[in-house]
From TrEMBL:
It comes from the Bacteria. PANTHER family: ACETYL-COENZYME A SYNTHETASE, ACETYL-COENZYME A SYNTHETASE 1. Transmembrane segments: none annotated. This is Acetate--CoA ligase. Belongs to the ATP-dependent AMP-binding enzyme family. Residues 75-461 form the AMP-dependent synthetase/ligase domain. Its EC number is 6.2.1.1. GO terms for molecular function: acetate-CoA ligase activity; AMP binding; ATP binding. GO terms for biological process: acetyl-CoA biosynthetic process from acetate. The keyword Nucleotide-binding applies. PROSITE patterns: AMP_BINDING. Keywords: Acetylation, ATP-binding, Ligase, Nucleotide-binding. Residues 522-600 form the AMP-binding enzyme C-terminal domain. It comes from Paraflavisolibacter caeni.
């Protein structure tokens, strides 16, 4: 496999960047030409950010799995596509060659079809990190069904909300999942979710943990039984569905500043082109390299850089079922040595948590196979950057700090390993095809360097969000209405004298906890579900390992309740409603919240108090009752 679009030098980067701005259609047509299309496009790009309407490669036909599988069979058929490392290091690992993966995806495509799934149907996938998850995702893409993967940590309630929003009639799940010392009963959670989703027709259950499950007659079937039927019938190849470049490939739910998660929609053609383009360039992937992204496929990072980007590039991608700290904090380093990993891509929160274990976990490992390191999900502090550089990369591996979002589909701002310069804590420069600008609160561009402002993008790149499922107006409102004719990221950023971007974090009411996006309103709604709660306000505060922690101010009905019990009950409620990832780190009981005369909570003040800056609260004169601020600032946790 060769990548005609791979950039090798800084000069090439500058040339490619310039061309991508001067002639975006010519630029992306050239990149797209190295993929396999059943029919070429009539027009490369058609767009406006008003509606918004974005169409890439219109009129073209393809199936993304033919690009991820079929076209590699001839030359890479016996090469590993997926290496799977189980949770328990004592269990056997698995290697799926491109040929194996192709066979299994074809088989499961037959299973989906036999169970009634058709092009355009939504299929919810709720599984642990096992190869069957990848197979299920790709089989959906092969038959033209829209997959919606839900992270294994979400609660039954969250799943039900998503199933209803997507009107998903089909589910693929497992009996359970292993994650570190835990055993998560996935099928039981699905059963709870389905009480509120009678429209679900079929649940396909893959065996992993042997956790007892209840299989409902007429609705639930075993993955293994369904595969056997296909084998008995001798069904092998599955002819991929012909898709339009703009047909929907998947929905992935993500949190925003309002209570309800949004179903971000990505489409087939542009998403494929951009994930492969960014994968090859940012990580400087070389055929034969082993790429290890530690994310879960339940998040966009896993979609784009465990599955689609690497597989569309004929790469070897490593899928890890477990967690970095189990059975011990050396697990990632042992995996790197075991498979001679060349690229390691992880989150700052994982790095910070591993830093806490000191250097002992590195003993007996050599990590000499590593060539490139990457980070994603949140700003990386300089201390963590240097630790990663020194102890993992041994000061010989470039670190790419990749900034992007669920909505962007792929990496937009990042250095390219060894090609463009790195700068600690900076995502640095935009990829070709990406035109960032900084604007002030009035939407006026902040020009010159250095600069600070809200980060927007001027023109579409191929994997930009197309809509929010079932509610296009919400997509317009959220991303395209704050500033006219710009895509607004929700992030603030600085630009240094050399034009390098440094992302400072969200400027809206979205928290980033251990690299997971959580809306403050979502957490507040969950807390308010508790019968004893009158009202709550949630803000983020700096947390050494998680990046941001969740701080909740809560007003209770009965101010004399036992606070420690109440705290536990609130945590339990949030776990039930959203999932354990949204549990507040701190809960402070208060008798009132600082509100303006118009009834708006002044979060700025609450954030300051949560940060411990109690003496510098700024102007409080517009508050309805300034005395609550004193009470809160003096209050104990
Ligand atoms: C938000 C998007 C995209 C992969 C995982 C997260 C923050 C992401 C960086 C980075 C600073 C970053 C932003 C962004 N973020 N990468 N390299 N430096 N901040 O996806 O859940 O959609 O969250 O993560 O705040 O808006 P997501």
């Amino acid at each position: 496999m060769s990548y005609p679009f791979q950039i090798k030098t800084y000069e090439e980067y500058q040339r490619a960047y310039k061309r991508s701005v001067d002639d975006p259609e010519g630029f992306w047509a050239d990149v797209a030409s190295s993929f396999s299309w059943r029919k070429r496009w009539n027009k490369v790009l058609d767009w406006n950010f008003k509606e918004p309407h974005v169409e890439w490669f219109s009129g073209s036909k393809l199936n993304i799995t033919e690009n991820c599988l079929d076209r590699h069979l001839l030359n890479l058929g016996n090469k590993p596509a997926i290496i799977w490392e189980p949770n328990d290091p004592e269990e056997h690992h698995r290697v799926l060659t491109y040929r194996n993966l192709y066979d299994k995806v074809c088989q499961f495509s037959h299973v989906l079809k036999n169970n009634g799934v058709k092009k355009g149907d939504r299929v919810c996938i709720y599984m642990g990190m096992i190869p069957e998850l990848a197979i299920a995702v790709l089989a959906c893409a092969r038959i033209g069904a829209i997959h919606s993967v839900i992270f294994g940590g979400f609660s039954a309630q969250s799943i039900a909300d998503r199933l209803q929003d997507a009107k998903a009639e089909y589910i693929v799940t497992c009996d359970g999942a292993f994650r570190g010392a835990k055993d998560i009963p996935l099928k039981n959670v699905i059963d709870d979710a389905l009480i509120a989703c009678p429209f679900v027709k079929r649940v396909i259950v893959c065996t992993r943990t042997r956790t007892p499950v209840s299989m409902i007659k007429g609705r639930d079937v075993w993955w293994e039984d369904e595969i056997k039927k296909v084998e008995t019938l001798g069904l092998n190849h599955f002819e991929a569905e012909e898709m339009d470049a703009e047909d929907e490939l998947f929905i992935l739910y993500t949190s925003g500043s309002t209570g309800k998660p949004k179903g971000v929609v990505h489409t087939c053609g542009g998403y494929m082109v951009f994930t492969a383009y960014s994968f090859v360039n940012v990580f400087q992937y070389t055929p034969g390299d082993v790429h290890f992204c530690t994310a879960d496929i339940g998040w966009i990072t896993g979609h784009s850089y465990i599955l689609y980007g690497p597989l569309a590039s004929g790469a070897t991608t490593l899928m890890f079922e477990g967690v970095p700290t189990w059975p011990d904090a050396g697990r990632l380093w042992q995996i790197v040595d075991k498979y001679k990993v060349n690229v390691l891509y992880t989150a700052p929160t994982a790095i910070r948590s591993l830093m806490g274990f000191g250097l002992e976990p590195f003993e007996g490992t050599d990590l000499s196979s590593l060539k490139v390191l990457g980070t994603v999900g949140e700003p990386i502090n300089e201390e963590a950057w240097h630790w990663y550089d020194e102890h993992v990369g041994k000061k010989r591996c470039p670190i790419v700090d990749t900034w992007w979002q669920t909505e962007t589909g792929g990496i937009l701002i990042s250095n390219m390993a060894g090609v463009t310069p790195a700068k600690p804590a900076h995502a640095t420069l935009p990829l070709p095809g990406v035109q960032p600008i900084l604007v002030d609160e009035n939407g006026v561009e902040v020009t010159g360097n250095p600069a600070a402002g809200n980060l927007c993008i001027k023109a579409p790149w191929p994997s930009i969000i197309r809509t929010t499922y079932g509610d296009h107006e919400r997509c317009r409102q959220t991303y395209f209405s704050t500033y006219e004719n710009l895509y607004f990221t929700g992030d603030g950023a600085l630009r240094d004298a050399d034009g390098n971007y440094r992302i400072t974090g969200r400027v809206d009411d979205v928290l980033n906890v251990s690299g997971h996006r959580i809306g403050t309103a979502e957490v507040e709604n969950a807390i308010n579900m508790h019968a004893g709660v009158v009202e709550s306000a949630v803000v983020g505060y700096p947390h050494d390992i998680k990046g941001q922690g969740i701080y909740a101010y809560v007003i209770c009905q009965d101010m004399h309740t036992d606070e420690s019990h109440m705290r536990l009950d609130i945590l339990q409620t949030v776990s039930r409603i959203i999932g354990p990832i949204a549990k507040p780190d701190k809960i402070q009981f208060v008798s009132g919240l600082p509100k303006t005369r118009s009834g708006k909570i002044m979060r700025r003040i609450l954030r300051k108090i949560a940060e411990g800056e109690k003496n510098n609260l700024g102007d409080t004169t517009t508050l309805l009752d300034p005395s609550v601020v004193e009470e809160i600032a003096e209050g104990k946790l």
